[in-house]
Design goal:
The protein is of the alpha+beta class. The chain contains 11 helices and 4 strands, in the order αααααααααβββαβα. Helix 9 runs parallel beside helix 10. A 4-stranded mixed β-sheet has the order 2-1-3-4, with helices on one face. Helix content is 53%, strand content 10%.
Length: 207
Amino acid sequence: MPYTRDERHALVETMRTVGPGAPTLCGDWTVRDLAAHLVLRERRLDATPGIMIPALSGHTARVQQSIAAQDWDALLGDVDSGPPLWSPFRLLDEQVNLAEMFVHHEDVRRAAADWSVRDLPSGMQDKLWTLASGIGRRSYRKAPVTVVLERPGRARTTVHSGGARAVTLRGEPSELLMHAFGREQARIEFDGAADDVAAVTRLDRGI
């Protein structure tokens, strides 16, 4: 089932509802800034390296600002239509964009004080579990203890081996994914010694 496409459309509708000036969980970015980031990522391949490479970030920032300056409805239309035919993201949309669409949708939703956890289809949670398990290996790689992710009643996986002491992060895959992406607005439980839990939660988990 094309969960990425559905999540993309839901993200656009949420952006439209809250408006371009609403805050997000992405630092000082507004919803307009976040929409421009998504368009840049899929349509301006000359500027995408700067998302990850600091030395190239100046060009990326200038391109993103120019994209953000366009008409709001047109900007949302570009997000909603997805990658153009010539973009490599087009063929790999379901593989590479589900985490991007889900996390950024929640970045908009959870910036509001009254946010709540969505009830997601089990099939989508299965995909998010795979993503959380993979991304967790990067996010928790510097932990001084072993880190385990647990989906209650379903699965457990060790994403980092750091010795005999361990911290278990327990929750729905959607919540574990948010935490792995560095968001504190995630409904999860921690099992482990208090100092070890603190060490894990202090990690720079940004991707």
